[in-house]
Amino acid sequence: MKNIIVKTVGALCLASAIFVLSSFIKEPEVSYKCMIQMTNYTGEKAYVVVSLINPEGKYEKTLYVQGDDKEWFPDLKEWWKFSDGTKENVDAISGATIGNGERNIISLGFNASHLDAGYKVRFESAVENQEYYTVDAEIELNSATIKEKVDGKGYIRYIRMVPNR
Amino acid sequence: MIVSVWRYSHLLFAIASSIFLLIASITGVILAVEPISNKIEPYSISGADELSLAETLENINTKYEEVLAVTRDRNGFVSATVIIDGKNEEFYIDPFTGDKLGSPIQKKPLFQFATNLHRSLFLKSTGRFLIGFASFLLILISISGIVLIAKRQGGYKQFFAPVVRENFSQYNHVVYARFSLIPLLVLAITGVYLSLLRFDIIPDSQVSLQVDFDSIQEEPFKEYTEFDLFKNTPLSELRELEYPFSEFVEDYYIIRLRDRELYLNQITGDVLAEEKYPTVQVISSWATVLHTGEGSILWSIVLGLGSLAIPFLTVTGFIVYFKRPKTKIKNEHSKNESDYVILVGTEGGTTLQFAQELHKQLLLSGKKSHLALMNEYSHFNKMEHLVVITATYGQGEAPASAEKFIQLVKKNQQKQAFDFSVVGFGSTAYPNFCQFAYETHEALKALNNSIAIEEVFTVNDQSFESFNNWCSVWSEKMGLPIHLEKPKLVTSSKPASTFKVIHKAELPEDDTFLLSLKNLNGSKPVSGDLLSVVPAKGERERLYSIGKVNTDTLLISIRRHEKGLCSNYLHQLEHNEKLTATIVNNRNFHFPKHSKKTVFIATGTGIGPFLGMMQENIKRKEIHLYWGARTKDAFNLYKDYIETALQEGKLTDFKTAYSRQQSEKIYVQHLIQRDKELFLEVLKSKGCIMICGSIAMQKEVLQELQELSNKYLGKDLSHYQNRKQIKMDCY
Question: Flavodoxin-like domain spans which residues (chain B) (predicted)?
Fold first, then answer.
């Protein structure tokens, strides 16, 4: 009888200890510095949205929105289907638009478990009254190749990423 | 080019662009507030602009682990983009400490809304085009406006001379247009420029620096605080500084200064590439600042007020247009069957009303009269009598409907002889009074078969009374019984007031008397305003100058004429009796508040308004009163007022000229030559000369002053008239 009580108490203690401990262990985050370099296109400043794409090729999460006027968000059609302004609060992760030839340096944070697991970072772009690029540039979240420069197809000339200090 | 073409295009452009301009200007006023509200945010640190870039960067780098960029905006606020806990953050900092001062100013929804409406009317590219085009039209409106003002004012030199006042809309349209001209032109031109830039008609050329990666050096290593550029460039020069993306030597500092962009090797501090901004970019930057007012509170206010002027100018402009009577004239008798021809030179159409009245009365008395505009002068086969009634445009030009008249007179010689009479309409408040009427008279007189019935007759301030005087003289000569009716529109619409006679002083031997009136209603006249009295129903009005001797008492000084209807009516009024009359504002004959020295010149009862004005002289500035009368006795009526004022120091001195007192006739104008030092001093020191009395005296006095002015000051008298240094109210 005593034995049972000891075992139960022990098990409970262990369980609660694990529970308490686990709440302290955060999932590890990795953060990368990312440079978006635009081409010398003509026209208004470009809207670019950076999203995390899961191994199935679906949108997982919005990482960054380069564009400060929500009026133009629907122009980024594929992303808008996923986000449509209600799913996520993009205010905290949005920044000013940049024009042709300019570059923007941002910091992107990822869940460590997404690294080397088939996830991709997609750069989607649109310019007022001009063509829309669903995939202007895409980078595999692969720690071995992530530092390589990736060229864009649309308004983006290239993307560079380096781990944050 | 003739006025009408400019005027027509001015109106046409305004109609075409009015809606867009109204939207753009109202949103523009709202947007003018934005740079002001940004500028007053407390993110400017005094003395920070003198810091070097090296010091600034050091301060920031010690505070934050990873810095991406440092910028300085047009308000002089410095902000940094840094990574904190893996997240981008941008905020204003104190360059001395690197401390965060506040988050970036968020564009308020109202400003966002106004900006979109202002730029594109929410119609994207179509809207941008419309607004850009309206902006272009605004340039054309401004230019045609400048030409119109110059024409009205009689040349570009007189551009800022006082404006002849016809009515509220006309006067204020011109006055405010002159004030807002510069901000409006700047807004319009930069607006067009920004539109052209937007549509890539002006190429947006950017700096494109090339780095020769093969020759990048990795040594010698220098601390960034030792880089020459960082040490020698003050923070005030900075626009934006981007840190190298990584620690590889291929990544470099990108630095945009006020005038150039350059790349800096992050290890050695060498300049890798450098280029001044292309001119287009500099212009674009200026255009943006000038158009938005960004960074300057003062300029934002100027732009805001300029923007505010657009709705005002649009409304007054259209009122001027719609109020301008359409000069459509119907004639019963053709030009070749009429004995009487009346020609009108009119600008706003008021002169036409008087002419139409005369025309009507001639027809009623059974005469064949033909009414036409002066520009329609041609052969009039049966014309015996010609009457020309003309206004003068601006500062002595021909009005719109008379521009070709002088040429036409020379071209179209009449076969038969005819007599003519010229009536000029104008205002003595402005120089070149009835100038064009005199020119018309000369042109007609030069013909060999014309007879001038009389000299030019001038009508001041659309006075029906004087026009009627002319008419009775003229019709008598013509042998016609003509009685003019006062045109309705000219009647002042102000309500009449009731006055009580509180005192009457009389000088029977001179036939003059003074009435002291108390106003029982509310209207508050100022000395120099006029009292319009209608002595009996259906009679025409008579005007008397008011002297306001104290808050309650108005003084009018009257000469009784034996058969004078009105003077006798006023004369028979007893103490406490009531009188109905109307106050007429006479803004051009008010006591000048800012003149240090003033001279009053009056003859006879013309002294009336001055008796009141002396009382306004609370500051006891210099006032010299010159008064002319026939005999010394006439003075007794005003003696008390003058002597009290002299004692109280409200009047400096009082000089008289009595024409019949001695064998030699002395008139008031003779005193001007005698006291010329005083008169010259008054003119030079921006003082004012006010004249009240008979027209004959006014002419003589003006002639004397003209001589003085020419001889000693080297200026035409109109120079001083333009500056309102000479004010007249004569009858």
Answer: 340-479
Q: Across the interface, do A95 and B88 touch by the CB < 8 Å criterion?
A: yes
Residue B213 lies in a domain: no
Interface mutation vs chain B, best among A45, A97, A105, most B CBs within 10 Å: A105
Say if residue B16 is exposed, middle or buried (CB neighbours under 10 Å; 0-12, 13-18, 19+).
Answer: middle
Per the structure, how many domains does chain B have?
A: 5
Please write the tens of the pLDDT for every residue from A29-79. Answer: 888 899 999 998 887 889 999 999 999 999 988 999 988 777 788 888 889
In whole angstroms, give the CA distance from residue B429 to residue B425: 12
- Which of B61, B65, B82, B87 is the best substitution to test chain A (most A C-beta atoms within 10 A)? B87
Nearest-CA distance B85 → chain A (Å): 9
φ, ψ of residue B356 to 5 degrees: the values are -65, -35
Which positions in chain A touch B86 (Cβ < 8 Å)? 29, 31, 107, 109, 164
B409 and B504 inside one domain: no
CA-nearest residue to A72 within chain B is: B124
Q: Is B705 helix (H, G, I), strand (E, B) or coil?
A: helix
For residue A16, is it within any domain? no
Name the DSSP letter for residue B712: I
Does pTM top 0.90 for this prediction? Answer: no
Residue B310: per-residue pLDDT: 95
Query: Which string of DSSP letters, residue by residue, matches B350-386?
Result: HHHHHHHHHHHHHHHTT--EEEEEGGG----TT--EE
Binned average pLDDT, 10 residues per bin, chain B of 731 residues: 76 93 95 93 91 94 92 93 85 94 89 92 89 96 92 82 79 92 95 91 79 86 92 94 90 92 93 92 93 93 95 92 70 90 82 87 91 91 93 80 89 91 83 86 91 85 79 87 69 70 86 87 82 78 85 88 84 86 83 89 91 88 91 87 90 89 83 90 91 84 88 83 81 71
**What's the DSSP call for residue A5?**
H
| Spatial separation of the C-alpha atoms in residues A62 and B155, rounded to whole Å | 66
Smallest CA–CA separation between A133 and chain B, in Å? 20
| Contact criterion met (CB < 8 Å) for A68 and B107 | yes
Q: Which of A42, A64, A101 sits opposite B200 (nearest CB)?
A: A42
The model's confidence at residue A92, banded by pLDDT at 50, 70 and 90, is confident
- Kindly state whether residue A2 falls inside one of the protein's structural domains: no
Considering the domain boundaries, does residue B409 fall inside one?
Answer: yes
Phi, psi of B445 (to 5 degrees): -65, -30
Q: What is the mean pLDDT of residues A90-108?
A: 84
What total of structural domains would you count in chain A?
A: 1
What pLDDT is attached to residue B199? 86
Interface test with B, best of A33, A63, A65, A146 (most B CBs within 10 A): A33
Residue B126 to residues A3, A129, B54, B123, B166, Cα–Cα distance (Å): 85, 11, 48, 6, 41
One domain, residues B576 and B639: no
Q: Return residues 568-597 of B near A (CB < 8 Å).
A: none
* Distance, CA of A44 to CA of B525 (rounded, Å): 62
What's the pLDDT score for residue B3?
64
Q: Tell me, what's the ipTM? A: 0.74
Q: Residues 52..111 of A with a Cβ closer than 8 Å to B: which?
A: 64, 68-69, 71, 95, 100-101, 103, 105-107, 109
Q: What is the pLDDT of residue B131?
A: 95
| Contact residues on chain A for B88, CB-CB shorter than 8 A | 64, 95, 106-107
What would the 3-class secondary structure string for A100-142 be? CCCEEEEEEEEEHHHCCCCCEEEEEEECCCCCEEEEEEEEECC
Residues B302 and B350 in one domain: no
Q: CATH number, domain at B604? A: 3.40.50.80
Question: B261 in a domain, yes or no?
Answer: no
